[in-house]
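Human: Here is a favour to ask of a fellow structure person. Comparing notes only helps if you start from a blank page. Give me a protein, with the fold worked out from its sequence. Please set it down just below, with no commentary around it:

Assistant:
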Amino acid sequence: MKNYIFGYGSLIETESRLRAAPLAKVAFPAIAFGFQRGWYARMPESLASISPTYLGCYPDRESHVNGVIYEVTEEELAATDEREKGYIRKKVTHLEEYYKVTEPGDTVWIYVNNFKNVVPPPNVFPSKKYPIVQSYVDICINGCLEIENSFPKAKEDHYTIHFIRSTIGWNDFWANDRIYPRRPFMYRKNAFEIDKILKENLPDLFDKIYIE
């Protein structure tokens, strides 16, 4: 029996994922049913008074979220628990795999937000104090593009567009915090490709990103 993690945000990207799971060089595209992804995850104010809003997830029978699955050891699972403090680890019971990876008896875990009433309250979405930041968006979209480049079925399914459109909570509080905002390719080589797909799918919001 093996343990797998379902990553739906920054864990989609290889470089980001390897920080917690050094052996997880390969992750496979999949869809988890019964969950809704959105911009409503923050660090506790006791740890950071000003911080970005990150992607979160909560159980919702009517929704689904695309992401990746990858095998982890017990040690890597514990390391991911530490990385994902503030989330609750739950089992995924309805998983659609683009390529068959898991076997009966395996466990797939997903990290979800701990909302008292299950659904996210209005005060957790991005705000001036807790904005969406482009550097984090870049990590997530770059991970999606990696998956499309590695798995033809995911590309055929418009995996990156699916990621953007199935994420709720995009709003005007979205800051361009790239190291070189006017020359983003200096740090993020595929910045223009990321910008193109965001502009095509979130045109009104993307045009409002400001440079600090």
Helices lie at 14-18, 74-83, 134-150, 152-156, 159-165, 191-201, 203-206.
